[in-house]
Amino acid sequence: MPPPSSVATAAQQHLAEQQELQTEALLRLDEALAEWSGRPDEWTDHVLGIGDDLLGFQVAAAAGADDYLAAVLAAQGVAVAPEGVVAPAAFADLADGGGSWLRKISFTVASVAEVEAPELERALWVARSIVLTGIQDVGRAAVQVAMQAEPGVTGYVRMLNPPSCSRCVLLAGRTYRSATAFRRHPRCDCRHIPKAEDSGDWTTSPQGYFGSLTTDEQNETFGRENAEAIRLGADISQVVNAEQGVTTVGGIRGQVVTSRSLAGAALDLERGQTAFRPLPDEIFQAAERAGWDRAEMLRQLRRFGYII
User: Do 51 and 262 meet the contact criterion of CB atoms below 8 Å apart?
Assistant: First the structure.
């Protein structure tokens, strides 16, 4: 069954706030692109010019995590008693693979030879994807970090934001342990719904979602042949490979932060210092491998500045 309407309302409100930040960030990127002459050697200057704004959107996306968690738990009738709060600045510049998303945007567009090339359109699409995914990842990471500081949370349920791709449809409604890293694909806009232990079963049916779509929507989401197979009775989980292209944020690389960065400030680095810092998902993965308890999870998240 789906989560209670009060829980779904809180989750949708948080999603709307995150989407507003994403829209503003993309508009800021588009403004920079509009002023760009098309010369690759000039693009880096444009990226640097909007860098602070883009990082600010990431910080804002992380800043909503504690309030969202409190609202969802209140809707479940759970008293909020956090043992720490999210440090929003620690999430700035968090990007897929731990690299700087600003450098990625610069490399993506600056590597295009000339304006008229078809590759330019692709490069600009990738640049927008980097910005969009960078904010989506931060919003999700901050929520999951906040969950670790709240004893009342035992897990989370994946929430779709329709229209959704076939992979996400298959994963939607599943319950995961609160420290299980969130698996997503680029531009994935699925979200956590933090869940208390006694809040019931929120499992949803992928087949039910499929049935709610029109034939054209089914064909577009799943592919015509796959959709027809499902309509004829095939098991949706056998038709769709939910794991294809779905990963966690990071891997094993983490990121290097400097004293000049917002993340470096969150770690109290002295002037000129640098530090290697694992991304939140890498900490969650390490916890699963090593069998850390919640106290150790909190210690590690505090150590790297994600919780204060």
Answer: no
From residue 179, alpha-carbon distances to 80, 81, 297 in Å are: 18, 18, 8
Peptide bond into 163 cis (omega under 30): yes
Q: Which helix (H) or strand (E) holds 275?
A: strand 274-277
Judge whether residue 270 has pLDDT over 70.
Answer: no
Task: Answer for the pair 87, 306: CB distance below 8 angstroms, yes or no.
Answer: yes
How far is Cα 243 from Cα 168, in angstroms, rounded to an integer? 9
Q: In angstroms, rounded to a whole number, what is the distance separating the alpha carbons of residues 29 and 266? A: 26
- Nearest 5°: phi and psi at 259? -65, -20
* Predicted confidence (pLDDT) per residue in 147-202, tens digit: 999 998 989 988 888 788 888 888 877 888 888 888 887 788 888 889 887 666 66
Distance CA 241, CA 133 (A): 22
Question: Tell me, what amino acid is at 195?
Answer: K
The answer on pLDDT for 138 being more than 50 is yes
Please tell me the pTM assigned to this model.
0.82
Distance, CA of 43 to chain centre: 26
Q: Report yes or no: 203 and 269 within 8 Å, Cβ to Cβ.
A: no
DSSP class of residue 149 equals T
